[in-house]
Amino acid sequence: MVLQYTDAVMWNPNLADDALWGDLHAEFTEPQIVEIGYWAGFTSGGQRWLHTLHTKQGELSAYMEERASRQKK
């Protein structure tokens, strides 16, 4: 059910029907449901943004580390 919720957040909000909400509330508290949804959206959005920059795995962190080391000098 959490994967269904994640799919709803990332791809198709219509998947979040009454049955899914009922299942989620049977297992999680409201704050937990919000946190799961937030994390799915945040992670997905971040990955999409990095994709628009045409970056590869590790490039952004390498750039940030290089920049920080130059600023310390």
Give your account of this protein's structure.
- With 73 residues, the chain is an all-alpha fold.
- The chain has one domain (2-72).
- The protein is built from 4 helices and no strands.
- It has helices at 2-10, 18-27, 30-52, 59-72.
- The protein is elongated.
Question: How many structural domains does the protein architecture include?
Answer: 1
Structural class, from secondary structure content?
A: mainly alpha
Tally of alpha and pi helices: 4
Work out the oligomeric state of the chains in this entry: single chain
Average residue-wise pLDDT:
92
Ranges with pLDDT <50 over ≥5 residues? Answer: none
Strand percentage lies at under 5%
> Cα distance, first to last residue?
51 Å
Biggest sheet character = none
- Number of DSSP E strands: 0
Please provide the ordered H/E string of secondary-structure elements. Answer: HHHH
Radius of gyration: 18 Å
Please estimate the helix content: over 70%
What spatial form do the alpha-carbon principal axes imply?
elongated
What does the secondary structure layout of this molecule look like, with pairings?
Elements: H1 2-10, H2 18-27, H3 30-52, H4 59-72
Helix pairs in contact: 1-3
